[in-house]
Write a structure and sequence with these properties.
By secondary structure, this protein is of the alpha+beta class. The protein has twelve helices and 35 strands. The longest helix is centred in the N-terminal third of the chain and has 26 residues.
Length: 690
């Protein structure tokens, strides 16, 4: 398939499988179709046009097929073959609910209209959640097959019957959930899918196959318009009118959204016209997106498709979908780990057969806590097509996947699940009768079993899945998300002028003394968004050339709920008098012994000396007002000296740094509160000359 155009939509969603469709031509005979002379000529012309589109067996053609056949239907509504073909055309396009009327009529008119009428009717019942009728018709169809044909089709038919039984169980115990269409500014009359949302929930990127600015270009594979990347920004609770992203990302061929980095500065897309489909990365620089570049060969392969991906918020792991050889069957989910220095991805490996099945897996998303994987699969206990499942990483292993249940999952394809850090919103893509057309993006709000139904309110609305039935095929009640992110956002500004600055933001795991993520501010605005997972001690350093860095320390317990911290950062220029608080410099309680968590911060001071050889810095220690002045003077000086000694040990000229102790002489907060005293216990670095 080298150089052959591929599409993420078809790479993920294979056309509705009708086993014997190719064998059942359902020929509309001219003599039998004719009723009267009046109107026959035009009606038969419509039949011929419909037949031409029907034989191509592509979703885009089936949409045209329906229109031609419906014109003929106005002339003769009782022709069994015409009703059959209209029903099949709706099954391959949308809305699939309309297929039932015509297929039931075809069967009622002539129960032998085609050899596969029972099967096609079963598929229509199945896809419209009429599970009992679907099972009956699947069973009747099996009984109608010869032993030879049954042997070929039995496995697939038994799977469909099992899906119907799962559907019955899941529908009997629906989730307490609201499912809302994302709206007319997101969804069009064409296919819209694959929402990827920034961590602050303000911008959505997604894929659309609409006829805007594409000059009528259609795919040769399915005859639908090519894929393009669109985005929308949110104002309050509402998404605004979508825009097609600039041409640097959208090419003349197919470009589909795969993932957006939490800060919105890196966009990952799938391009399906090289090497069977690869993942690409585009960066947001100077208010525009760069031309996408192919990701590492550790992820992309030469002969296979890599279609969907998600990166853990601490950047340590990358999950993606591929149909690489030696998988468990079809498309599987793979995992890549970051190297110890955090600069490259290591060789990918299959995530294993707890997640992957003999059937296709697709569209992967790792939750903000880094412990919960959401993915779509045609295996496990799906109720039909792709269902969305959840698995939790615990005790060094992934748990048995759990079906998220109805009404998130349906007998059709449900894909691209993504959950926001606020714990209140999730988005997924599905084709529903109440949609705008084709596949749409939907917002889901899930209510816990204990809480009353409400439309808005607390952050923990997405708390759990209601308890399912106690059949062995369905797991016990589980939470959708166990940890919630803290979002730190604001702007980086010049201390003196207030002008926005472009800066780099380094996130350090203080306990491990290692950099876990590096972000950037947004273009000319200086805006930043930093996602922090619960249960860690973080150091954050914000820096740019010509300025002293700014540091912050965040200790976030496991139990903390979702929170948003807004903080503008003012960087001071590298001139005499500028000073910073070293928020990530730590000492043992009541002592001057440096803790290892301090080293990343102090190494930044060492680098400043290397960049500015003539620099002379004062390191000052400060305490709160508890205890005697003598003790605090001695402690503050000793702590400052410990910092200077560390700098000297790293090669800084001992004449370039001096230590002073100011005890509680210069408080920056009220010493009457513990919070104020904690702020007063600090170490500062001040430029004396440069």
């Amino acid at each position: 398939m080298k150089n052959k155009l591929t599409i993420i939509f078809l790479s993920i969603m294979i056309m509705l499988p009708i086993i014997s469709f190719s064998q059942s031509r359902a020929k509309i005979k001219k003599k039998e179709f004719r009723e009267t002379t009046a109107g026959f000529k035009d009606a038969w012309k419509s039949v011929r046009k419909g037949n031409w589109q029907y034989l191509k067996k592509r979703p885009g053609n089936f949409k045209k097929t329906v229109n031609h056949y419906l014109t003929a239907y106005e002339y003769n509504a009782d022709n069994a073959e015409l009703n059959y073909k209209i029903g099949v055309s709706y099954l391959f396009s949308s809305p699939k609910s309309k297929s039932l009327k015509y297929l039931e009529k075809a069967y009622k008119t002539d129960e032998y209209v085609t050899k596969d009428i029972l099967f096609v009717l079963a598929r229509a019942y199945h896809l419209n959640s009429k599970f009992e009728k679907a099972i009956d018709n699947y069973t009747l169809y099996k009984e109608s097959l010869s032993p030879k044909k049954l042997k070929k089709q039995e496995e697939k038919l038994d799977k469909y019957i099992a899906e119907c039984k799962s559907g019955i169980e899941l529908v009997e115990k629906p989730l307490r959930a609201f499912i809302d269409n994302a709206g007319k500014f997101i969804n069009s009359e064409f296919d819209d899918y694959g929402a990827a949302i920034t961590v602050n929930g303000k911008k959505m990127f997604y894929t659309s196959r609409r006829d805007i600015n594409t000059k009528g270009r259609r795919s040769n594979v399915d005859y639908l318009f090519n894929e393009d990347v669109y985005f929308s920004e949110r104002s309050g609770e509402d998404w605004q009118e979508s825009k097609r992203i600039e041409s640097s990302v959208n090419s003349k061929r197919n470009d589909a959204v795969a993932y957006i980095a939490p800060d919105g500065q890196k966009l990952y897309i799938y391009r399906g016209y090289e090497r069977n489909g690869d993942l690409y990365e585009s960066r947001f620089k100077k208010e525009k997106w760069s031309s996408p570049s192919s990701m590492t060969k550790k992820i992309n392969s030469k002969k296979y498709k890599e279609t969907s991906m998600s990166i853990a918020h601490d950047q340590s792991k990358l999950y993606f979908v591929s149909n690489k050889k030696k998988g468990f069957g079809g498309k599987d989910i793979y995992i890549c780990n970051k190297s110890k220095n955090g600069k490259r991805w290591k060789k990918a490996s299959n995530i294993g057969n707890v997640i992957n099945t003999e059937y296709d897996e697709a569209t992967v998303f790792i939750s903000p806590d880094g412990k919960t994987l959401y993915f779509s699969s045609k295996g496990h206990n799906t109720m039909g097509g792709y269902d969305i499942f959840k698995s939790t990483f615990k005790d060094s292993a992934w748990s048995k996947p759990v079906n998220l249940g109805f009404p998130i999952n349906t007998p059709g394809d449900d894909l691209f699940f993504t959950i926001l850090p606020n714990g209140r919103e999730a988005y997924f893509s599905s084709e529903k009768d109440d949609g705008n057309g084709g596949m749409d993006i939907y917002k889901v709000t899930i209510l816990s079993k204990e809480k009353p139904m409400m439309i808005s309110g607390e952050d923990n609305l997405i708390a759990s899945i209601s308890e399912p039935t106690k059949e062995t095929s369905i797991e016990k009640q589980v939470e959708i998300q166990t940890k919630l992110l803290t979002i730190v956002k604001g702007k980086v500004l010049d201390y003196n002028t207030g002008n926005p600055l472009t800066a780099t933001i380094e996130i350090v795991d203080n306990d491990k003394n290692s950099v876990i993520n590096t972000l950037s501010t947004k273009g000319e605005t200086g805006e930043f968004v930093v996602p922090l997972e619960s249960g860690k001690n973080y150091g954050i350093a914000i820096k740019t050339e010509g300025y002293l860095f700014h540091s912050e320390n965040f200790v976030i317990p496991d139990s903390v709920k979702h929170q948003v911290i807004e903080k503008d950062v003012k960087l001071q220029p590298m001139i005499a008098g500028s000073k910073i608080i070293l928020h990530n410099t730590f000492f043992e309680s009541g002592k001057s012994t440096l803790q290892g968590a301090s080293f990343s911060e102090l190494d930044r001071i060492v680098k400043i000396f290397k960049d500015y050889p003539n620099l002379f810095i004062e390191i000052s220690g400060h305490t709160d007002n508890r205890g005697s002045m003598v003790f605090n003077r001695r402690l503050s000086k000793a702590r400052a000296q410990s910092v200077v000694n560390y700098l000297i040990s790293k090669g800084v000229n001992k004449k370039k740094a001096k230590a002073v102790g100011f005890y509680y002489k210069f408080p920056i907060a009220d010493n009457k509160t513990e919070e104020g005293r904690a702020k007063n216990r600090r170490v500062e670095a001040k430029i004396l000359s440069n």
